[in-house]
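Kindly go through one protein, given below as sequence and tokens. The question is how this chain folds according to its tokens.

***
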Amino acid sequence: MNLQRIFPALLLAVAALPAQAQVLTSGRALPLTLAQAAAQAAIAACEADGYRVSASVVDAAGVERAFLRGDHSTVHTRETAFRKAYTAVTLGPIFGTTTTGALADKVGKTPTGPALASVGNVILLAGGVAIRHGDETLAALGIGGAPGGALDERCAQAGVAAIQTRVDALTAP
């Protein structure tokens, strides 16, 4: 088996996937009120540590549902927050990860993994966390602006944790 030919073909196939919407099988969707609550909780967690951040929540298709710019956060935080959420929701299920930190670690260990960074809206930095109901990814929360992706990710995890019991209670339509 010629792995030098298979790896590029596999990478191209995976790289094309984020352009397609993730398909929810249960019919559940994250309500806007929960998207906003997660973003607010994440920003509050970062602000408590002195970090000025922005938060973006995207649905399973990667479409932004909520965006909040924290007080005094810089302009670039909007894009990084969105791209982290987008990456978590579109690539996380494919690679079996729930955070962009874990995803970056996983794809960084493969010879062709860094090429994913050239896919539109993908950013391989920590700070994006999936919002899940059981094994299904409904949405993702991305944070941008703390001095390091691990800090962004910690705030995103706090935002998801703040709404998780309400997400678990969502029923299928």
User: Anything to note?
Assistant: Confidence is low (pLDDT under 50) at residues 1-21. The helical segments are 3-16, 32-48, 77-95, 100-108, 149-168.
